Amino acid sequence: MRRLAPHILSLAVVGSLVSGAAPAQSTPEFREALEAYQDGDAARAVMGFRTLAEQGDGAAQFNLALLFLKGAGLPRNDRAAFYWAWRARLNTVPEAVALSDMIGRILPAEVVADVAGQLFEDLKADVAGGKADAMLGVARVQITLSPAPDRVEALAWATLASAFDVAGARALRDALGLELSDQDRLAAQARAQELFADWCAGPGAESCGH
Predict the structure, then answer these.
(1) What is the residue-wise DSSP string for 87-149?
(2) Of the N and C termini of the chain, which has fewer Cβ atoms inside 10 Å?
(3) DSSP 3-state of 180
(4) Distance CA 161, CA 207 (A)
(5) Which of 40, 52, 108 is nearest to 78 (CA)?
(6) Whole-prediction pTM value?
(7) How far apart are CA 95 and CA 93, in angstroms?
(8) What CA–CA distance (Å, rounded) separates 20 from 96?
(9) Distance CA 182, CA 144 (A)
(10) What's the DSSP call for residue 76?
(11) What topology does CATH give the domain 17-106?
(12) Alpha-carbon distances of 112 from 7, 93, 101, rounded to whole Å
């Protein structure tokens, strides 16, 4: 299949920044960043959305990805746009699925692999910091973005996430379990026990019932 020229992608991104939650629920910081962009101050919007994106705000992550892609308020950076689009995708921002797929099609395979590696590191750091939702993110990156998907490892992380009722984890765990052999499924369960022990030895100890 012919690769799209880099300039085609930005023209294909229809729509604009997402507004996040309902106005009554979005934070003042998010509204301020959105208003800055609407007022033509993209640099201030970048600063606002970056701060919120680093704090885990999915809508801010998506908007930061778009600003990187458009080169608005900072130089265009397709790799950074891809990374933040994937963070938003893992935060279940609907628009981020198409955006991350589109950017991924124009990036070299080695850059996609590099971003996958960065996501693994950052998500595992989030888990180590006590964020259970990041467990499912590790599984999803493993099966969707990794250049060498390890479905046993993905099942282990999905199994761990499902133990803490992370939304969507149980469905992914069961789907992966049906795809694997009994031996691989048991291997994944053993690996999940190791991950569980690590979690219970860290900030997540309170959720382990000790």
Answers:
(1) HHHHTT-HHHHHHHHHHHHHS-HHHHHHHHHHHHHHHHHHHHTT-THHHHHHHHHHHHT-SS-
(2) N
(3) coil
(4) 12
(5) 108
(6) 0.87
(7) 6
(8) 12
(9) 22
(10) -
(11) 1.25.40
(12) 18, 20, 11
Distance in angstroms between the alpha carbons of the first and the last residue of the chain: 54
Burial of 154 (0-12, 13-18, 19+ CB in 10 A): buried
Residue whose token pair is 């085609």: 8
Of 98, 125, 93, residue with least CA distance to 19? 93
Token code pair at residue 123: 């998500």
Fill in the DSSP letter of residue 63: H
Rounded CA separation 13/24 (Å) = 28
Here the tokens at position 180 are 């694997």
**Type of residue found at 108:** P
Number of Cβ within 10 Å of residue 183's Cβ equals 9
Residue with tokens 């955006």: 99
